[in-house]
Amino acid sequence: RETARDIEKGPTLPNTTVKLTHPDRIYWPGDGVTKQGLANYYAEVWRFMEPFVVNRPLALLRCPEGIDGPRFFQKHAWRGINTNIVAITDPKDKAGEKYLKINDFDGLIALAQSAVLEIHPWGTTTEHWERPDMITMDLDPGDGVGWSDIVAAATELKDRLETAGLAAFVKTSGGKGLHVVAPLKPKATWRQVKAFTKALADTMSKDTPTRYLSTATKAKRDGRIFIDYLRNGRGNTAVCAYSTRARPGAPVSMPLDWSDLGEDIGPAHFTLNNVATHLQKRSTDPWGEFFAAARPLA
Ligand code: ATP
Ligand code: MN
Ligand code: MN
Asked: What's the domain of life for this entry (predicted)?
């Protein structure tokens, strides 16, 4: 039974058996964030983050010397990998190199121990590898695009996704933009899902070419938003909800309520240091019904 003191302390944090070596190692020098600080942050967000990170093939951005040191994106196992990071076989490439997933909180702490500063899952789980369970539309603003324009683009995407019979959720990227994410019942194939997202991006850029484009050509992006649908192909990834970013300020990709998208926040407003307070102040989890809201792609 919860006592008044327990409630004051907030929910019980998950336990781990994973040992952090060198817990004082600095990962974000400008912000004084250590390996222990990263593990503490993940303990705070675990109960919200879990369904978005477990049982999914992962691409991992590792920065053994912190964000100012060398960095590498890894999709496959490395020598001496922690046993809580699990090797999995791609069913379409049984002879190929194995992918990686985690099963539980120990796995997440093993990632922190391994200097993984960004976690990028596929939009599917290993139970239905060929049928994505979410769409991520990544809004990439070119130079000169303002926050209100990014919010307008996200809102237009929400309307269009809802018109297509899907639910739409929004998160900051922790970088420059927003991600609009739609839960799917895992029925359509990667090819069908990617075709749908391409058509969505193409339609938006055709309807308002002065504001949007749907091709990745950086040169033409000035003043416009690239509707990056390319996160939705087989093997592509997008940063995980609640993942930290290996950028100054220790920003995180933060799930929001649509009504949170005001002038007082921006794409990198939420950081490892302020998310726990924000979660405590919030009365409901805006992404709490994410998987319950899943619909099949028509
Ligand atoms: P921003 O708001 O700054 O755009 P973002 O996370 O959306 O943040 P993008 O550059 O738009 O960043 O997206 C790139 C995506 O491509 C990442 O989310 C990641 O999943 C993937 N990615 C990035 N680097 C690599 C890489 N080296 N190998 C494979 N995938 C990568
Ligand atoms: Mn982006
Ligand atoms: Mn992008």
From this structure: Bacteria
Is the same domain home to 173 and 108?
no
Together in a domain, 8 and 123: yes
Ligand 1 pocket check for 267: Cβ under 6 Å: yes
Find the domain containing 200 and state its range: 134-232
71 touches ligand 1 (CB under 6 Å): no
Structural domains of the chain, count: 2
Q: Give the model confidence (pLDDT) of 237-277 as tens digits.
A: 999 999 999 999 999 999 999 999 999 999 899 999 999 99
The beta strands (E) that lie in 5-154 are given as 26-28, 33-34, 58-62, 72-74, 86-88, 99-101, 116-121, 134-141
| CATH code at position 280 | 3.90.920.10
19 Cα: distance to centroid of ligand 2 (angstroms): 33
Given ligand 1 and candidates 237, 242, 244, 265, which is best to mutate, with the most ligand atoms within 8 Å of its CB? Answer: 237
- According to DSSP, the residues that pair with 244 across neighbouring strands are 252
Residue 99 phi/psi, 5° resolution?
-90, 180
Q: Give the rounded distance of the alpha carbon of 170 from its chain centre.
A: 11
Is ipTM > 0.90 here?
A: yes
Q: Are residues 16 and 153 in the same domain?
A: no
CATH number at residue 145: 3.30.70.3300
In sequence order, the β-bridge partners of residue 227 are 139
